[in-house]
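Residues pack. One example:


***
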Amino acid sequence: LPQPSYTFTTLCALRDRYPDCHFSLIVGSDCWEEFRRWRNSDRIISEFGIIVYPRPGVDLIPPPIEGVTMVKDAPMVEISSTFIRHAIERGDNVAFFLPPEVDEYIMHHRIY
């Protein structure tokens, strides 16, 4: 998508391209704390739904918001998308953290 590529725009493009699929956004609870500042955050919730995954050190009270699912009992992982993006920018090998197809796509298209 043309830059800047906002999450809502990406989700809409995915919905248009794959009309038989339902897409939801998964974010870490650390990201959820700032989610309301995202462009079209209300529309992301209402049109796609959002799943909030627990992150170490972030205790959140589940909000009573329709379209928001808080994952409670799940293994906590000490890795984030930010970590992976920064590792790629540094030229580090991230193949261990990603499915092979995703790693190949990122490298082929020179994302990040």
